[in-house]
From TrEMBL:
Its EC number is 3.2.1.55. This is non-reducing end alpha-L-arabinofuranosidase. Pfam families: Alpha-L-AF_C, ASD1_dom. Its main location: secreted.
């Protein structure tokens, strides 16, 4: 009987939780609660939020860069992904024509010292004779990263390196995945004397059609042997002309990030140090970048998106860079502190590359890449999630002392969490990562309420709801994250920076769920977690005001209030954000005291993020299913009666009258 009663209770509880999660209680049956929110908006009690509070974290995971943010369309463009030994796997390159017409292999004859592998294509057929080539010739094709998105009217820059002992006649085409639809094409004819040594061919192709599943073809109907290497197709129309996919970079810009942390994450460490990200191998001419296999997320990247490009992207976004460095530690091997000096020097060289004068050794390398002015690199994170490993603290101190000795203004970030106990080593900030359930993350809105206000500041560099609550990007996850962010906002005297993770996922290679932005070769959408960040994009540098909620069982409600100034027209706003993590409708009475300027209903708005089901997600079919909806707020004022929907994030942006308007009224 006791066992039966226990099982029944567990069953009933499970049903209750299921209903809550599925948001299946009918609207008319939901309880209405009354709550009071008091905002003290006086300047005297306001607290300036750090200019740095909310930013973004980019990691090469889920093909976020290769086949994503970096606009290069050719996958394995240097034939190096199969490794340095030949013969090697040339995937995803494939042959056009059967084995009686063509044979391909790899050898180490490239002219690029750090990329020796080249593709050798031998053609047995000809335009006449005993073996005649098919009408459209034979050759090789590259489908890119799950299809190239080629758009009508757009122009693409094509580069390929060619060598042959005979004259060549190569057709370079952008076609549909089956080769039947020709979108753009050109013939490149060269005498043997022009291609007897490696020759760079560079030209533009303008597409006459659109196909989101296209490929690059290199074909010929001439007998002979041709070597190819370092083949690239890039759209001319990229974000600020710097090689980033425009739609994806624009979604980042819309968040108004104050910083960009890069390039990882575990990508920095590698499963083994031999596969870790090495900044020096990712700069200079793209043809000379050796690329590397990211053995944590298990795919090859040619490192076209390298250290320089990360710095450039941060600058283009109006954000400052935070460089996460490898401190001689991977997931499986570590460098003894007594042997760490070469690694330290490598990082000092990397900082000089970013910050040095164009006349310095490494600053001149940056200048040669087209950026003579130094980048504003003022933050360096030593390692990623390495605290507690055998040599971390010893290595950390070596890096810390060397960087501070040369660059005393650089802020150093430790991997060790100092939120519950004091660090035993020097640091300007410490890293805090949290991946957990929705309910747990929401409850963590008080996480830093009792953290010491002296010593290093908090950098919440990775946070997200994960597991069954999150799906591939649910409303439930976003609501919990919103509550957590309000807690960070409220504790911004000790929390200096925060960013969601991961940022991107190519839908064809989901290594991690959920993510902020989902894309394929031609589409993209923001998950609810992405849209929640829009509620906080005005917070950095704003003024935080004290808020008090009075309600029964008010632990499902959290709120914050800031005043911020628009950079567009200098208008000032009081933004009040409320997260309702409960199933009840809340009749909320808002009372604002201490305002210097009157509230102007003209220009005031209400923005709500919610949906009919807690597990609702966006998708390519319904990209806007869960996103903020903004409406005007005619009853805007210092005293307002408003209705807060169940399971929602609501923002009231109250336009504050300017002095001349205030005098008039």
């Amino acid at each position: 009987m006791g066992h039966q009663a226990s099982s029944s209770a567990a069953f009933i509880y499970s049903l209750f939780i299921l209903c809550a999660i599925q948001h299946c209680i009918a609207y008319e049956l939901k309880a209405n609660r009354t709550a009071f929110l008091r905002v003290t908006a006086s300047q005297e009690l306001g607290q300036k939020i750090p200019d740095t509070l909310f930013g973004i974290f980019f990691e090469e995971i889920n093909h976020a860069g290769a086949g994503g943010l970096w606009a290069e369309l050719v996958s394995n463009r240097g034939f190096e992904a199969g490794g340095p030994n030949t013969p090697s796997n040339i995937n995803p390159w494939s042959i056009i024509g059967n084995e009686s017409f063509i044979s391909v292999s790899t050898d180490r004859t490239s002219c690029f010292e750090r990329n020796k592998v080249a593709l050798r294509m031998e053609v047995f057929c000809d335009s006449k004779g005993s073996i005649v080539c098919p009408p459209n010739g034979v050759g090789i094709y590259n489908p890119g990263y799950w299809g190239m998105n080629i758009e009508q009217g757009k122009t693409y820059k094509v580069i390929l390196h060619v060598r042959s002992s005979e004259s060549v006649n190569i057709s370079v085409s952008l076609t549909s995945s089956d080769g039947l639809q020709k979108l753009a094409s050109t013939n490149r004819i060269a005498a043997a004397s022009d291609v007897s040594n490696w020759t760079k061919m560079e030209f533009l192709l303008q597409s006459e059609g659109t196909n989101s599943n296209s490929r690059l073809q290199l074909t010929t109907n001439k007998k002979g042997v041709i070597w190819f290497d370092q083949v690239s197709v890039m759209p001319l129309d990229t974000y600020k002309g710097h090689g980033f996919r425009k739609e994806l970079a624009s979604m980042l810009e819309d968040l108004k990030p104050r910083y960009m942390r890069f390039p990882g994450g575990c990508f920095v460490e590698g499963e083994w140090l031999r596969n870790a990200f090495r900044w020096r191998a990712t700069i200079g001419s793209w043809e000379e970048r050796p690329g590397h296999f990211g053995d944590v997320w298990m795919y090859w990247t040619d490192d076209g998106l390298g250290y320089f490009e990360f710095l450039q992207l941060a600058e283009d976004l109006g954000a400052f860079p935070i460089w996460v460095i490898n401190n001689g530690i991977s997931h499986n091997d570590e460098v003894d502190t007594t042997d760490i000096s070469p690694f330290v020097q490598e990082i000092l060289n990397g900082i000089e590359f970013a910050r040095g004068s164009p006349n310095s050794t490494w600053g001149s390398a940056r200048a040669a890449m087209g950026h003579p002015e130094p980048f504003q690199l003022n933050y360096v994170a030593i390692g990623n999630e390495d605290c507690g490993k055998k040599f971390y603290q010893g290595n950390y101190l070596k890096f810390y002392c060397a960087i501070k000795a040369t660059y005393p203004d650089i802020n150093i970030i430790s991997n060790c969490d100092g939120s519950s106990r004091q660090l035993d080593h020097r640091a300007d900030l410490y890293d805090f990562h949290i991946y957990t359930s929705a309910r747990n993350l929401f409850s963590m809105n008080t996480q830093f309420d009792h953290t010491s206000r002296t010593g290093p500041k908090v950098f919440v560099s990775e946070y997200a709801v994960t597991g069954s609550d999150a799906g591939t990007g649910s409303l439930l996850a976003a609501l919990a994250e919103a509550g957590f962010l309000i807690g960070l906002e409220r504790n911004s005297d000790v929390v200096q920076m925060a960013s969601y993770a991961p940022l991107f996922v190519n839908a064809n290679d989901r290594r991690w769920n959920p993510d902020a932005i989902v894309f394929n070769s031609w589409q993209q959408y923001g998950t609810p977690s992405y849209w929640v960040q829009h509620f906080f994009k005005e917070s950095s540098g704003a003024t935080l005001h004290p808020t008090t909620i009075q309600a029964n069982a008010s632990n499902s409600l959290v709120a914050s209030a800031i005043t911020w100034q628009s950079s567009v027209d200098n208008s000032e706003y009081l933004k009040i954000k409320i997260v309702n993590f409960g199933n009840d409708i809340v009749n909320l009475k808002i009372s604002v005291a201490g305002l210097q300027n009157a509230v102007n209903s003209v220009g005031s708005t209400k923005t709500v993020l919610t949906s009919s089901n807690l597990m609702d997600e966006n998708s390519f079919e319904e990209p806007n299913k869960v996103m903020p909806v903004q409406t005007s707020l005619p009853n805007a004022g210092a005293q307002m009666d408003v209705v807060i929907s169940p399971y929602s994030v609501t923002s009231f942006d109250l336009s504050l009258a300017q002095e001349e308007y205030r005098s008039a009224i």
